[in-house]
Design a protein that fits this description.
200 residues; mainly alpha; Arc Repressor Mutant, subunit A; three-stranded antiparallel beta sheet; 8 helices; 10% strand; disordered C terminus
Length: 200
């Protein structure tokens, strides 16, 4: 089985891009859009890819177009943003695979090394460490996955949702998206968000 890789970017960058695109009339030329954000096209590309993968934009020709779901998440409050993103993440092949994979383990958790091994098979053309980092960042925000420092295990979040004070994220010319980086509860001890080289 092979799966589409996760673009190497964070949730705050995705939401910031959607906000700017909405402010500019929901459609923009990608090259000019990058210039306005004071970014190289190569820097903007993974954010666009992530937004498209999650169903928030389309990129016909050389343009980027905000879709109805993208506009909805721009206008939503924090809890609704989290809910929409969680629903979209759960549709992605990598997320579906690891949700099923962890569900089949009695403790709903495995060592990080096991996740890296699976990623090597699922996305062989990508760095497993980077894919792991993105999977964890996105998964923590969506309260789907987490990581325990104490056990060294990556786990499926099966407990209730928790709220946390939002933390703004600012990347290049993107405005703060007021996005909380919400972790799931630890499987057995503390948890971490900046893991495995996925954070920049």
């Amino acid at each position: 089985m092979f799966a589409a890789p996760l673009p190497d970017t964070g949730v705050s960058e995705i939401l910031g891009l959607l906000k700017v695109l909405d402010d500019q009339g929901a459609r923009a030329d990608v090259f000019r859009f990058a210039q306005e954000l004071n970014m190289d096209t190569s820097e903007l590309l993974p954010i666009l890819q992530a937004a498209e993968l999650l169903g928030f934009v389309q990129t016909p020709g050389g343009d980027v177009v905000l879709l109805p779901l993208g506009r909805r998440i721009v206008d939503a409050d924090i809890n609704t943003k989290k809910s929409i993103l969680r629903e979209q993440m759960e549709k992605l092949p990598l997320f579906r695979f690891f949700m099923d994979f962890l569900s089949n383990h009695p403790e709903k958790a495995v060592e990080k090394s096991v996740i890296l091994e699976e990623l090597t098979l699922l996305v062989p053309t990508e760095s497993p460490e980077k894919q792991y980092g993105t999977l964890l960042k996105w998964g923590r925000y969506g309260e789907i996955f987490g990581f325990s420092h104490d056990t060294g295990r990556f786990f499926l979040n099966t407990r209730g949702r928790r709220r946390r004070t939002p933390r703004a994220g600012d990347a290049h010319g993107l405005p703060p998206a007021n996005v909380p980086d919400s972790p799931g509860p630890p499987a057995a001890g503390g948890e971490v968000g900046d893991v495995g080289g996925g954070e920049r």
